[in-house]
Amino acid sequence: MSDTARRLAAEAIGTGLLVATVVGSGIMAERLTGDSALALLANTLPAGAILIVLITVFGPVSGAHFNPAVSMVFALQGALPARMALAYAGAQIAGGLVGTLLAHAMFEAPFWLPSATIRSGPGQWIAEAVATAGLITTILGGLRARPEAVPVLVGLYITAAYWFTASTSFANPAVTIARTLTDSFSGIRPADAPGFIAAQLAGAVLAAALCRWLFKPQGAPT
């Protein structure tokens, strides 16, 4: 298997497992409790935990992006060829869709069940821009300061962002698309996904520009 194939497989598998965790824990939370705050906590902790595991395991193979917004930022920085970034995004989206179907299969839910959960409006879009900008800043800042800590930093950031953002921090176009297919606690109505994705990409671009200035090596030209 070629290096490219291994990298794309890692991105697809990692994103699939991430989505299966988010959707599966959401379904489990709904079945175990009627308390929405407790259900959100039950959805939050597995998502943060699995990110630490997945980034640690797949990081050496593909960089463990699992997120088209992250791949886009690395392409803008010249750290990832544009063609590879597009291939990453395709693998991430495909993996995410399979992750939703896998979660449904495990819980014996209908495979294809578009969400009816409304997530729209300026507050939600601002929250997604903030969530994604924070994620990108966490990754780039972590890579600069303590690369070995990035898995934990990302896991902890997403755990926190679930609670301080109005949108519960999707912060990922591939995950957003995948979550349109689950009418469960973690779902998003398909009609609302484009607004989320636009906000995520905008937040990612703004964070990349900020980090380029903020983390400029001392003494380097502006």
From TrEMBL:
SUPFAM superfamilies: Aquaporin-like (SSF81338)
Transmembrane portions of the chain: 12-29, 49-74, 86-105, 125-143, 150-175, 195-215
This protein's GO CC annotations: membrane
Annotated compartments: Membrane
An MF annotation (GO) of this entry: channel activity
UniProt keyword annotation of Cell division present: no
InterPro entries, alphabetized: Aquaporin-like, Aquaporin_transptr, MIP
Domain of life of the native organism: Bacteria
Keywords in alphabetical order: Membrane, Transmembrane, Transmembrane helix, Transport
Membrane-topology descriptor: Multi-pass membrane protein
Similarity comment: family membership: Belongs to the MIP/aquaporin (TC 1.A.8) family.
Protein name according to UniProt: Aquaporin family protein
